Amino acid sequence: MRSTAKRSNCPISRTLDLFGDRWTLLILRDIAFKGYNFYNEFLGSDEKIATNILADRLKMLEEKKIIVSRTVESKKYNRLKKRKEYKLTASGIGMVPVIMEMLVWGHGFDPSTMVVPEFFERYKTDRDGLLKEVMESLEHDLHKNFC
Q1: Ramachandran assignment for 143, one of left (phi > 0), alpha (psi -120 to 50 degrees), beta (any other)
Q2: For the chain, how far is it from start to end, CA to CA, in angstroms?
Q3: Residue 31, Cα to own-chain centre: how many angstroms?
Q4: Considering only CA atoms, which of 20, 96, 101 is closest in space to residue 60?
Q5: Which residue ranges in the chain fall short of pLDDT 70?
Q6: SS3 for the chain, per residue?
Q7: Where are the domains of the chain?
């Protein structure tokens, strides 16, 4: 598993220890803003994360108590199948404002990136209301797709 050893007492350094690779924040983005909760949904993201890296990052995020998983049953192909459902913990939800600001900054830096126009317009006119709605949807397990 990727090392998350503490390199210094600097809070930015510590944040990068946890989220400083190219995949971890994208997993949190997918949960918070796309409503993804299952392994196969993460695999379907545009960035094409490899299965071994996805499994590693999910395990690390769970060990650090940023996400939590539970086993759920689903009926697929006329048989019951057990799957893990991933959700943000309170600590993970605490990263949502940071991720939202990165999403908006990234689109402002490169307008060719894909953002649902309604999301970006709402951010400009009602940032606090949008953030509150995203946070509440995660706290109440609503699995909304915001972008």
Answers
A1: left
A2: 30
A3: 4
A4: 20
A5: 2, 75-80
A6: CCCCCCCCCCHHHHHHHHHCCCCHHHHHHHHHHHCCCEHHHHHCCCCCCCHHHHHHHHHHHHHCCCEEEEEEEEEECCEEEEEEEEEECHHHHCCHHHHHHHHHHHHHHCCCCCCCHHHHHHHHHHHHHHHHHHHHHHHCCCCCCCC
A7: 11-139
pLDDT at 76: 63
The residue type of 80 is L
Q: How many CB atoms lie within 10 A of CB 125?
A: 9
Asked if residue 1 lies in contact with residue 60, where contact means CB atoms within 8 angstroms, the answer is yes
Q: Which CATH architecture has domain 11-139?
A: Orthogonal Bundle (1.10)
Residue among 124, 126, 122 at smallest CA distance from 146: 122
- Do residues 100 and 79 make contact, with C-beta atoms less than 8 angstroms apart? no
Task: State the pLDDT at residue 79.
Answer: 65
What is the maximum alpha-carbon separation in the chain? Answer: 53
Q: What is the pLDDT of residue 85?
A: 95
Residue among 60, 50, 45 nearest 1 (CA) = 60
Cα 146 to chain center, whole Å?
A: 12
